[in-house]
Design goal:
globular; 30 strands; 9-stranded antiparallel beta sheet; 422 residues; alpha+beta; 15% helix; 8-stranded antiparallel beta barrel
Length: 422
């Protein structure tokens, strides 16, 4: 019995020794040595780009705010960033970066950079609010790389993001992207774009926060974030349509439409657009500022018009009035606004004087006739969303109380608009 046990032990020891030799044969370097080599490869790749890299950045784990274009150029210690978010393609900000080993090689933007940390700064009141901001990343796992592309995964959001080697200076590329954005967004009155790809119908409609809704056939739909490019838009991930992978829509300035997989899409007019444009023009705005009646000439110009937002630019007031077209009610609507530094809040005026800048409450522009002059005007009255309270005015507010940063009136009670060019 003892001899049998001895032989078994010897055989097992031989097997284990054989396995150990096989592992040693497969890897002639330690895991740390291999990681150090990979980090050096990544560093060399980052430095190899003459003009730097394009980073298509998606904040929030659900890509809730869409994608944004940044450019990053690396030297041995610092990264220099630029982005469309500054509205100035020539503006750059430099800070330190590092490559580390953590769940694989990681790229980290270590010191604060107002561009690279814009979406990751929890002190911003935009996005999900103070304490969260846009909930973006500043640390990334390097998932794969080629000579011209690096695939990243945000450590916080788990979003997949791509870096592409730039073929021209950052300022030139960003200028093209911003011009393309303007070309696409300046086309108003389009509800969606549709076409047929390999016998399968497809429809693309744009919503707010750089999201696109894609209908494939009659039973399949996708909602995806996208970034603008110098040629059109690129989707967060590809969609299969008629056996083809579609991840970009090219924009044709000449045809004023998109092209998907070489198929020119047909723009579909929004039936609400004619009513939307009927409201733009010159008005006299009448209101009470809390101490006296006021009359101000204002002009409504066409603003953003897409599936989720139809607004106007208002000129003549000391602050940007958030004025929209409500297609369901077929009327103008003033909605609350959280602008970070200040709020446009709806105000009860009477009772306890409650106010709110939460999303939804506002004032509908109801068509009325002056009983004496029979002149038509729009009276702005509660839209019913506040429920417990009745909004009768708007007030400019902030964390410190009434916001006086614009220098004009802060209270707008009993608002009426009289159109001058009917």
């Amino acid at each position: 019995m003892k001899r049998t046990l001895f032989y078994i032990v010897c055989i097992m020891a031989g097997i284990l020794q054989s396995c150990t030799n096989e592992v040693d044969d497969l890897f002639d370097k330690s895991a740390q040595e291999r990681m150090n080599e990979e980090l050096q490869t990544c560093k060399s790749l980052l430095l190899s780009a003459e003009y730097g890299w394009l980073l298509e950045y998606y904040p929030s784990s659900k890509q809730s705010y869409g994608g944004y274009v940044m450019t990053v150029k690396f030297d041995e210690q610092q990264v220099t960033a630029a982005s469309e978010i500054t509205n100035d393609p020539s503006k750059t900000v430099s800070s330190y970066y590092s490559l580390k080993s953590d769940m694989g090689p990681t790229l980290n933007f270590d010191t604060y950079n107002e561009i690279l940390h814009y979406f990751a700064d929890p002190d911003k009141s935009e996005g999900a609010g103070l304490g969260k901001g846009y909930e973006g990343d500043y640390e990334f796992i390097i998932m794969s790389h080629t000579d011209n592309e690096i695939v990243l995964k945000g450590k916080k959001t788990k979003n997949t993001m791509h870096m592409f080697k730039l073929k021209e200076p950052s300022e030139e590329y960003l200028t093209k992207v911003m011009n393309m954005t303007q070309s696409i967004t300046s086309v108003l009155g389009i509800d969606s774009y549709n076409g047929v790809l390999n016998g399968l119908s497809m429809n693309f409609s744009f919503s707010e926060n750089r999201k696109i809704e894609i209908e494939v056939g009659t039973e399949e739909s996708h909602t995806l974030a996208y970034t603008y490019t110098d040629n059109g838009i690129r989707l967060y991930e590809s969609v299969e349509i008629g056996g083809l992978e579609v991840n970009e829509l090219e924009w044709s300035d000449e045809q004023q439409t998109f092209i998907a997989a070489n198929q020119v899409l047909s723009p579909i007019l929004d039936p609400n657009y004619e009513r939307y444009i009927a409201f733009y023009g010159n008005y006299t705005m009448k209101y009470n500022n809390g101490s006296k009646d006021v009359e101000v000439p204002i002009t409504l110009s066409l603003g953003t018009y897409n599936a989720s937002q139809k607004n106007y630019t208002v000129e003549g007031l000391s602050f940007p009035l958030p004025l929209y077209y409500n297609p369901t009610k077929d009327c103008l609507e003033i909605l609350t606004l959280n602008a970070g530094e200040y709020y446009v809040a709806v105000w009860e005026v009477t009772g306890k004087g409650n106010l709110t800048w939460g999303t939804g409450p506002g004032l509908l522009g109801i068509e009325r006739n002056d009983e004496e002059t029979m002149e038509q005007y729009y009276s702005f009255e509660d839209n019913g969303v506040w429920k417990t309270y009745i909004a009768r005015a708007i007030i400019l507010w902030s964390a410190e109380g009434e916001y006086k940063g614009f220098g004009g009136d802060t209270r707008y009670i009993d608002i009426k608009l009289y159109k001058n060019d009917q």
